[in-house]
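Human: Cast an eye over this sequence-structure pair and say how the chain folds.
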Amino acid sequence: MGKINLLDRLRLGLAVSVAKSVTFGVRSLRLGAASVLPGSIARKIEPRLLQLLSQQVKRGVILIAGTNGKTTTSLLLSSILERSQFRVAHNSTGANLENGLMTALLATTNLVGNLDVDYAILEVDENVIPKVLTQIQPRIILCLNLFRDQLDRYGEVDTISKRWTKVISTLPLDTVVIPNADDPTLSYLGQQLPQKVLFFGLNEPEQYLGEIPHAVDSIYCPNCGHSLDYEGVYLSHLGDFHCPNCGFSKSKPTFDSREFPQILVGLYNKYNTLAAVTAARELGVDEATILDTINNFQAAFGRAEDLVVNGKRVRILLSKNPVGTNETIRVVTQSTDKTTLLVLNDRTPDGTDVSWIWDVDTEKLVERGGTLVVSGDRVYDMALRLRYSDRSAESSLNLIVEEDLRSAIATALEHTPDDEILHILPTYSAMLEVREVLTGRKIL
């Protein structure tokens, strides 16, 4: 830790002690995982808490930002480093606002606020990156993707990317930035930065989508505004592109995407794999350790997480925005399983504007038939979207509307054959509720 006077040290010690007491109380009473509240209270005692804790990390802080994939990518990278015998602090529950970051660091301190870890891996909400970077000087920043998300809270992706570029460009030149080469906005961002930049991306044309989906956010050149020409798209606006007007094109990835297998199901998890691998390689981790970790990786809660409930397999696929939901639908439609539960909430963690469901390609889910059970706070909005997607005069779709979540889960399980998987597609707060019903444990 840098120089700190006696009064500040006492205040830091008090903040840490109070935070640990709160954590103990919340967990003892089984009120949750205490992943946010301790940091919120401790911050009131010591406003510089995030700065004072992060500067104690021995080998550096790694920030992971983006709309989709933060929790899975950070968990994979954390697992790789821990398998390499490094001590890691990590906000593993996905609490990615400032209070959640502080709580994660507080969890690994002693009673006087000393932090003894090699790395801190912190997934950060894309909208608070500018605030966080005024308090933390990271060793590595991973920029996964930028999609429209929670329209009631965030601006368009161009606004967020400009804010990112402005604040990241002021960081020390030895900061390593790792953007997604397949995202035009982030590819351009990386090309503008003075720091060391490493790109990750796909080189697998056989994975191209047949057409650009409705949920596409950035098909215009970030340099001149002209429409981009795509050789093919992998998901949403991520793909192989160039601008016929100014010459801007996809940045070259640091290594071939075929070198490593992907974690879990879904092409989006290949991006998560590549991002974590690029960072791990930059930190000097050997290839054998990286591969071993990938091959033994277990999903984060709610992210392609597999459970067994009443003897039946259940897979939870977090679906919180158009792009993410299109990708989880792709996973479902590529399987032979015919029962799906969709749970749509509109609470603060989800975003109160649910109009995004009309940008989701639900037609692909409906046209295959089977049983769709819908629930959640906005169950009738989702049911209406699915009904409008049913264009066949001889549809075999069995649409079941159930307001009560427990009843919806029970109904979906009843309709799931023993040899199939029940896929559950919930928004964020709905995912927490679903897991509590299925496992009897709260996450937050």
Notes: The first helix runs from residue 6 to 28. Confidence is low (pLDDT under 50) at residues 150-155.
